[in-house]
Design a protein that fits this description.
105 residues; mainly alpha; 67% helix; elongated
């Protein structure tokens, strides 16, 4: 299951969402828990920088939407890559290239 990339909603004065509830995506970017923790950070920062609840939620959601869209697209791109006709070969080459880059360092 996944939400459409770029999903947004109208800010409500009494509720918001974080983590998978806010930006459900496939696991092919490996960002699930990272995004949830970052959402919590963004929300805390909004509380720190704003006083009005609706302003707090708007500030949080604006930043969260921007960040989650990037990771949702990466997740979708990786899903499509891995399940393409030559996905296994492309993934093997990806790891071979990564190993070569690490060896050069």
């Amino acid at each position: 299951y996944q939400f459409p990339i770029g999903l947004k909603w109208i800010t409500q004065p009494n509720i918001t969402l974080i983590g998978d509830a806010a930006h459900l995506m496939s696991p092919f970017a490996g960002e699930g828990v990272n995004m949830a923790l970052y959402d919590a950070y963004l929300l805390a920062q909004s509380f720190k920088n704003k006083e009005n609840v609706i302003d707090i939620l708007k500030a949080y959601e604006k930043k969260m939407f921007e960040v989650s869209e990037v990771h949702a697209q990466a997740s979708q791109d990786n899903l499509e890559l891995m399940f393409s006709n030559d996905g296994a070969e492309k993934m093997a080459n990806f790891f071979i290239d990564m190993e070569a880059q690490l060896s050069e360092s």
